[in-house]
């Protein structure tokens, strides 16, 4: 390590950088990340949240190296490089602008494919980024290095008293085991440290990532960019080469709706929240429809409401919370458990996540008082009915309605695969159905092991 360069970091203090890694950091593609904010427009609420994807990527590389030191069969250098490059395809303002089919993972692979990486081929790095091999499990597992760094870093830069993780203890308890393929888990003695990760993420989710003002600001920015694309200012793929400064400059110099919205953001003249529909106020069918709506369908709903009230209205449907940490495998001797099987905290936090999710409707500030008295959830729910037939298609739900109850996730997966769903599609749809309340997942203890049973619920 004596010949390494050192980057000073507020979270980990000294981060050692090898020459091979420095050559990647110094590329134009990676330097672009200096001007892409990690948490989008969160700085509209927390002024110091101006940290970027640049330092997060370096921090993720550091955590990857620390974790891999204790894992046999893991190429430490390869996982550090993959972690360093894992966000290189992000659009300006990070996840705020994953719109019109933009997928940062796709553009990351596209950029990495053209990079000159010392000692490794681009294909080897891309395989890790696609979660292949033991190194891939560190990037995309139930507990991954990306999440550890962004929680610590976002907490530090927002200044909130959340996001505290006993990460030194946690990374020492991470182990690699075989379960058809290499998979990450934790030792039983690391359960409390894993719970600290759960608590940190829940608190950051509810108080920072889902803050009402951040959501309004990002909805306005997202629509300004959509208008910009429709006005011919740029194409979706151009976002992979732009940073925050490029994008804002183009929108400020434009005319039309995109310019109006960005000027409002510049003056912090934000849209107002005229309607909140909370998780418990929606039926399972309504929740299922909402989380399955595509961008064009959301646009149709906005246009219908905008025409009715003669003003611009934006509908904000956040992604449903994917709470994969609750599935962390805990190794206790010869037995394996899911974290939420043995941790009451993990089990209860799962439901707390769901119930903190809501749908919001925004209007221009000068129409706020008027529309707040006119708009209620009834009109929105009536509009949703027109999408019911298309959105209600679900192979898993069809199977459970026919079978009444299926004992064991493996059995349900095997039946679903016969219907043409892959394992990843199965897990994604299963999560959405559980979130919506259309199916029930029950944990049953059978001869010392846990089994997951599934049944359909009436909507």
UniProtKB/TrEMBL annotation:
GO terms for biological process: dGTP catabolic process. GO terms for molecular function: dGTPase activity. CDD domains: HDc. InterPro entries: dGTPase-like, HD/PDEase_dom, HD_assoc_2, HD_domain. Gene3D superfamilies: Hypothetical protein af1432. Residues 53-151 form the HD domain. It comes from the Archaea. PANTHER family: DEOXYNUCLEOSIDE TRIPHOSPHATE TRIPHOSPHOHYDROLASE (PTHR11373), DEOXYNUCLEOSIDE TRIPHOSPHATE TRIPHOSPHOHYDROLASE SAMHD1 (PTHR11373:SF4). This is HD domain-containing protein. It comes from Methanofervidicoccus abyssi.
């Amino acid at each position: 390590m004596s010949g390494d360069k050192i980057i000073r970091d507020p979270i980990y203090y000294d981060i050692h950088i090898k020459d091979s890694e420095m050559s990647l950091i110094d590329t134009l593609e990676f330097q672009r990340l200096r001007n892409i904010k990690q948490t989008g427009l969160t700085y509209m609420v927390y002024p110091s949240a101006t940290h970027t994807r640049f330092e997060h990527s370096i921090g993720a590389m550091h955590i990857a190296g620390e974790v891999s030191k204790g894992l046999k069969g893991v190429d430490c250098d390869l996982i550090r490089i993959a972690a360093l490059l894992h966000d290189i395809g992000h659009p300006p303002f990070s996840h705020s602008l994953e719109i019109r089919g933009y997928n940062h993972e796709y553009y990351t692979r596209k950029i990495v494919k053209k990079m000159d990486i010392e000692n490794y081929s681009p294909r080897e790095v891309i395989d890790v980024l696609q979660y292949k091999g033991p190194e891939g499990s560190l990037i995309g597992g139930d507990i991954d290095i990306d999440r550890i760094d962004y929680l610590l870093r976002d907490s530090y830069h927002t200044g909130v008293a959340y996001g505290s993780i006993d990460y030194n203890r946690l990374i020492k308890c991470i182990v690699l085991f075989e379960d058809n393929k290499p998979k990450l888990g934790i030792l039983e003695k690391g359960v409390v440290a894993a719970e600290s990760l759960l608590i940190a993420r829940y608190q950051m989710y509810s108080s920072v990532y889902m803050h009402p003002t951040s959501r309004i600001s990002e909805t306005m920015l997202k629509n300004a960019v959509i208008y910009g694309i429709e006005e011919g200012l740029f194409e979706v793929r151009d976002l992979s080469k732009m940073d925050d400064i490029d994008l804002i400059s183009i929108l400020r110099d434009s005319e039309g709706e995109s310019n109006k919205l960005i000027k409002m953001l510049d003056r912090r003249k934000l849209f107002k929240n005229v309607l909140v529909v909370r998780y418990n106020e929606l039926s399972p069918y309504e929740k299922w429809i909402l989380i399955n709506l595509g961008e064009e369908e959301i646009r149709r709903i906005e246009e219908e409401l905008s025409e009715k009230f003669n003003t611009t209205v934006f509908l904000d449907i956040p992604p449903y919370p994917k709470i994969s940490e609750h599935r962390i495998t805990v190794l206790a001797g010869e037995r394996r458990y899911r974290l939420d099987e043995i941790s009451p905290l993990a089990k209860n936090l799962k439901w707390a996540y769901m119930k903190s999710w809501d749908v919001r409707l925004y209007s221009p500030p000068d129409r706020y008082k008027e529309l707040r008295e006119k708009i209620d959830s009834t009109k929105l729910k009536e509009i949703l009915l027109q999408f019911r037939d298309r959105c209600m298609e679900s192979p898993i739900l069809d199977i459970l309605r026919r079978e009444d109850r299926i004992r064991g996730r493996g059995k349900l997966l095997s039946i679903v695969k016969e219907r043409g769903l892959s394992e990843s599609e199965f897990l994604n749809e299963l999560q959405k159905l559980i979130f919506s309340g259309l199916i029930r997942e029950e944990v049953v203890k059978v001869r010392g092991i846990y089994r997951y049973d599934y049944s359909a619920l009436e909507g």
